[in-house]
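Escalation from tier 1.

The customer reports that the assembly of two entities below gives different structure tokens on two consecutive runs. Tier 1 could not reproduce it. I'm attaching the input and our single run for tier 2 to review.
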Amino acid sequence: MSASRTRRVRAFTSAALGLSLALTVAACGGTTQDSNEDEGGGGDEPAATADAGGEFETGLSIAMLPKSVNNPYFDASSEGAEAAVGELEGEYEYTGPSDTAASSQVSYINTLSQQAADVILLSANDPNALCSSLEQARAAGTSVVTFDSDVDPSCRDAFVSQVDGAEVGRTLIEMMSEQIGGEGQIAILSATANATNQNAWIAVIEEELANNPDYANVELVATVYGDDEDEKSFQETQGLLQANPELKGIISPTTVGIAAAARYLQGSEYKGQIALTGLGTPNQMREFVKDGTVTEFALWDPTALGELAAYAGAAVASGIITGAEGDTFTAGELGEYTVGADGVIILGPPTRFNADNIDDFDF
Amino acid sequence: MTLVARPTDSAPTTRTGSTLLDAVLRFRALGLLIALVAMVAATAAVNSRFVSQQSIRDILLGAAITILLAVGMTVVVLTRGIDLSVGSVLGLSAYVTADFLQVNPGTPVPVAMLLGLAIGAGCGLVNGAVIHFGKVPALVATLGTLYVFRGIVYFVAGGSRINASDMPRGFLDFGTDRVLGIPYLIIVSLVVVVLAGVFLSRYRAGRDMYALGSSPEAAKLAGIPAGRRLLTAYVLCGALAGLGGVLHAARFGTVDASAGSGMELNVVAAVVVGGVAIFGGSGTVFGAALGALLLTVISNALPVLSVDQFWQQAIVGALILGAIGLDRFVGLRVSASLRRKDSHVD
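Tier 1 run:
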């Protein structure tokens, strides 16, 4: 119990992000094939990167080490990374612990280092606990690129961030304001009270509300925490609606929260009365968008994140980039990316999903 | 023999004189009712929406699954056992059932429920067999199966999640629809509570559970088939957890490998708060159901009262201790009063 509980409660959405792969295993396989062919078709990419300073080496061994295996979010990231590694003619491995305890990744890093992996793509469970292992791995010639969840910048070569935190916050409040017509009370249903990412986004939302004249009439009345549990999220949603009769909308920046809140609204008398938006996956929210419970929500694409991470890792291992600010590389069909301050590479703005485009996505 | 044939809660007729007082005092769930009423009244005084139709439905829906599991747990605890694997069994049943429905969208709801019951009963049989034939203490055995069953869910589910749009409309409606204003889920739970209550108080096999929990040695000497009864108890508990899994899938519409994680502690808390003695032999499913309802009311009321989230866990814990304390107090009063009366009668 404790293992899976930890897995759920860890301070990052990804631990909560759920993607239905069961239905789509076949489809995903197909997608991977397609993207391989696409990239094969546009096979001049390595030549393009040569212009950016060097060519990707082939035969790199690239390993992805997620926070925990059995997490649909990372399964999707792995799909993307595997496709990229296939494109780069490298060897790919997906390995990791089954729980998200801070120390459980250490032995995996050591093993990968001993196996002389060229690149480790890491989503870190802890910003500091992994540093000494990572230092050893890097001393042995392994390039370390973190994605999704970073370690201390001195312990890795580059960090592939899913999205700019401020941009997520701004997108969330913008969607909410659009849906409630620019005025009224809103509330936030978050994950756990100490979830780093959620808290950063909430801080941005609060700042926007305070300073942006567009949101002068929008008032944040409560922030509650569903702990990324279905039952708790249900209860907190009920509590919000009862405690705040004037509530117009709820923002839930966590996939478990938004799905639970949507399911509650769908079966209650509040359906259609309360606007709900936040971060969710298209497969998870399709039902609620189709029946009008939810108008629009957002998320980044974890598959693209994994793909970009793999390209970034290969670029570091090939000497195309060093992780210094201003380095550029081309990540296959994702296009050209520039390394920002502290070796951070940003995937791009979150994608918005609504009734018009939700059927174009399958993750 | 007196050890085996404990006086039942439902036989106050043996005590003439002040039947009413007996009935009140001997109803161990009295403390619970008081706490429940106080909690609802206090919350409603602050926010009248708490007693609105929608809110009451939400509470009942929220309690339905815990009640179901608490009934099964009661039977096991009565035999001086415990089943910590119920959360994992619920998760396994929820995932397998949801997966089955996704592949066979035409499946009627009762068939889905039978499937969940069967999965749960299978898990319960494993528990019972390990405990009875392996002579392993229930706490250790079910702690083991807690991880084993959860491991199986992870194996079956991998990283996948079954979403609302993957499940048939009719099944999801079952999770939210109601008849005469009462949600289906709570009707299922109440039927189970009544059936289990009748089984435990009126049937020989049911009474044997109390006997086993009161004094296993005496019960065996009196010829009670201990092994068969123990297996029955664990199969029953597992089956109800399995049924709970089906309801979980219908209610939340989203199932992944972690469904029901950590639920066993809530269920044990509900049972203990509901006045079922953790050392077996005493308690009723009605008490356990009330315990589950009380815990649900508490966790629903605190957000309505806008209690700071950081305090909620502590408050729930304190209320659990309080409810147990109150119940214990009433229990002491009862036994004291019974002793006095016994001496009078004698």
